[in-house]
Model the fold of this input.
Amino acid sequence: MRQICLLLLAVSAATAQTGKIPQGFTPIFDGKTLKGWHLSRTVHHGTTGNVFVENGEITLKQRPYGQGGLLLTDKKYHNFEFYVEVKEAWGCNSGLFLRSTEGGSAYQIELDQTRGSGNLLGENMRVSKTAQAAEIAKVWKLDDWNSFRIRMEGDAPHITLWVNDVLMWDVEEPVNDKIADEVDGMIGLQLHWGSTYAPAEGSFNMSQNWKPDAAYKFRAIGIKELK
Done:
């Protein structure tokens, strides 16, 4: 009986373990609080999202349904490698924002398995050269954790993405696409909004971008600042 109890405790402990950031990276999430992070009060996705820490993970949920937000680091970064592990809800959209402004103008890595994930896009700005993670389906783990490692270097950034340690794309932008020639910004975790109210003429319908009570989860968040 004692051996069975010890086995159950061991299984429970293993299940509760979270991922680990790679060697040489500095944690920017303590696994317990949102210290060092804040919700944007100006982003168009919304400002009332339900963001909390549980089981060593940052969980993002809409609140009320249809209203999202953007969780940003307090600190701005220029040249860096960023690491995060993501567990997504099927049918929901999110993104990793790079060199973001407070209002959410940023280079973005899309997180969306129903319409494609790992693609390089611009959020509230035009990106000169985009990229597609065409091979992501070969390494993606459904209903499980997936790691993203992003290297961003240079004023006109050279950006590289690895998903689950496999190179997805490597892009060098011909110019700096950021507004007013900014060369740094915050790291952002996107809580996508949805247009769930009466549609306005000419509006962009995002009602299929998030399921009710669905969540995105992030853990093992670290950064390595580069010169």
